[in-house]
Design brief:
Blueprint lengths: L3 E7 L3 H12 L4 E4 L11 E5 L2 E4 L10 H6 L9 E3 L2 E5 L5 E5 L2 H11 L1 H25 L11 H30 L2 H6 L5 H9 L14 H9 L2 E2 L2 E2 L3 E3 L4 H13 L3 E3 L4 E7 L2 E7 L4 E9 L3 H7 L8 H9 L6 E8 L18 E4 L3 H12 L8 E5 L1 H4 L9 E8 L11 H16 L5 H4 E7 L1 H8 L35 E3 L13 H15 L1
Parallel strand pairs: 1-2, 1-14, 2-11, 6-16, 14-20
Antiparallel strand pairs: 3-4, 5-10, 6-7, 8-9, 12-13, 13-14, 15-18, 15-19, 16-17, 17-18
Helix pairs in contact: 1-9, 1-17, 3-4, 4-5, 5-8, 7-12
């Protein structure tokens, strides 16, 4: 054995970095091991073509927990979040729908489509705001083990019970509906404008192998309402320098607290002796000892690859094998010689500075899902687009632009498998879809990078290319994430912990699993 540490964190994604920073802050000697040449996992910025910088996988920051920003003093480590001002949905009939950060502008725009929806939108926002506040404390607590009678777990369940009581019957009823309904059905009760229902329900299917009419997708809408930036609810933001800047700020915070970061260090397996984790073996054969080993990887890698499943209870292994982690999205990054020119709203304008959503109707999204259900990528996909260089000019050379396109659906299990030819065909489909609304796009493309779920698995270490390390469906949340009895960041092997997005409260760039995992470890070490 070479050097020995108090704790080793496997995987330098943002949750691994948050975990390491909290452990370092408590005075532990911590080592982070990252397989790739840079830290950040799926939240990285890379200069893929000279002068053009991309947030390669994930692209917006919404859920980064305010307590993490405070505890680790991330602004002092270089974190700066710029708000995304709007969501613009171009429509096939030549019209469009825009929701602005400015409430009155949005109201006026919705009124143009439907006076009824303009009123309902305010009421809907108020209810979601209340429900988000109600659910927020749950996202900040370690989930109680529902199968246990230990005093701490019973106290946790009691605390949950008190939350539910405090909600009152009306809001509790609204929450139950939200937890069980599909996004489309839930929004249908509120609104009549197709493009509004579609664009809003799209945020219920992002990263999930479900359609807008699949039950359980309405809850994900609430997940997106929890985005808090500087205390502003419902603000999506963009980090200056791309999402890699978020990871870099957390990495800086960790290093300032004494944490050692090593890149190009792929972990082959965790060393266990006598039912305890003792350290890790790298793929190079090097061994490093530690009292505590933390996996920030997804549940499949944490339980089925890094340790021998024979050391784990059969029931847990079965649960993890069943854990649904189907990758369903791709990403296209473009370098452009000029901005896209949309037929429905020509020329440069503030509508290009926010998100651009190709989601004209719920039926459009459901058809895109139908293709994926039968093993093909969507012929007319849902696209979620940002042009980072408009918000942060440093991302591209002067006068040029980068465009980030998140694409759904691109199933990991594609009929006939993903090949180079299929990747290019997928890229072409995305460009063709967007060109229907912005005809100048094709001639403006200087370079393109197309990522399929298979690429994300290979390059980012995301099993099946799933960006949330596992679907945010009801049977995979809270005390069931990733498996009953093991939702508290511990594992059956003493000294071996988990803190990736596959644990509570789940995906997105929140850092919450990393923080809660660290709090659990520190509590255990004090005992």
């Amino acid at each position: 054995m070479g050097m020995s540490y108090d704790a080793i964190v496997i995987g330098g994604g943002h949750n691994g970095l948050v975990n390491a920073a909290y452990l370092g802050r408590a005075g532990l000697r911590v080592l982070v091991l990252e397989r790739r040449h840079l830290v950040g996992g799926a939240a990285v910025t890379e200069e893929v073509f000279p002068g053009f910088k991309y947030s390669v996988c994930s692209y917006v920051v919404s859920l980064l927990r305010p307590e993490i920003i405070r505890d680790l003093d991330l602004p002092a480590c270089g974190l700066e979040i710029l708000p995304l001002e709007s969501t613009f949905t171009p429509l096939p009939n030549g019209d469009y729908l825009v929701r602005w950060a400015d409430h009155d502008l949005t109201r006026r725009e919705l009124y143009r489509h439907s006076p009824r929806d303009a009123d309902a939108y305010d009421e809907f926002g108020r209810l979601m705001h209340q429900l988000a506040f109600a659910v927020k404390p749950v996202l900040g607590m370690i989930p109680p083990d529902v199968t246990s009678f230990a005093p701490s777990d019973l106290a946790g369940l009691l605390r949950l019970g008190r939350y539910v009581r405090a909600l009152g019957a009306d809001r509790f009823h609204a929450l139950v509906k939200l937890m069980t309904m599909s996004a489309a059905d839930y929004l249908e009760e509120w609104f009549e404008t197709e493009s509004l229902k579609a664009t809003m329900s799209a945020s219920g299917i992002i990263g999930t192998f479900l359609g807008p009419r699949s039950p359980g997708t309405a809850y994900v809408l609430l997940h997106h309402y929890l985005g808090e930036i500087d205390g502003v609810f419902r603000a999506w933001g963009f980090a200056r320098g791309g999402t890699g800047a978020v990871s870099n700020a957390i990495a800086t915070a960790a290093e300032r607290r004494g944490v050692t970061l090593r890149t190009g260090a792929a972990v082959a397996r965790v060393i266990t002796r006598g039912g305890r984790a003792r350290g890790v073996v790298l793929e190079s054969g090097e061994q490093i000892g530690a009292r505590v080993v933390v996996s920030a990887l997804d549940p499949k890698r944490t339980f089925l690859e890094l340790v021998d499943p024979a050391e784990l209870p059969g029931e847990l292994v079965a649960d993890i094998r069943r854990f649904r982690i189907r990758g369903s999205s791709g990403k296209v990054n473009l370098a452009l010689s000029e901005l896209p020119n949309f037929t429905c709203l020509p020329g440069f304008g503030p509508h290009l500075r926010g998100a651009i959503s190709i989601s004209p109707s719920v039926e459009y999204l459901e058809r895109a899902y139908d293709d994926a259900k039968y093993g093909a990528f969507s012929r007319r996909p849902y696209l979620d687009i940002v042009i980072p260089s408009l918000i942060d000019p440093g991302m591209a050379p002067p006068g040029k632009h980068v465009m980030s396109i998140f694409v759904q659906y691109a199933p990991y299990q594609l009929n006939g498998g993903w090949t180079d030819a299929r990747r290019e065909a997928f890229g072409d489909t995305v460009i063709d879809t967007l060109s229907q609304f912005a005809p100048n796009l094709k001639s403006a493309i200087l370079h393109r990078q197309v990522l399929t779920p298979a690429d994300m698995e290979r390059e980012m270490g995301l099993t099946e290319g799933n960006i949330f390390h596992g679907e945010l469906s009801l049977h995979q949340l809270f005390s069931l994430r990733p498996a009953t009895r093991w939702a508290q960041y511990r594992t059956p092997i003493a000294g071996y912990y988990q803190c990736g997005s596959g644990t509570h409260p789940g995906g997105g760039i929140s850092g919450a699993p990393g923080r809660l995992g660290a709090l659990r470890i520190l509590k255990d070490l004090r005992q």
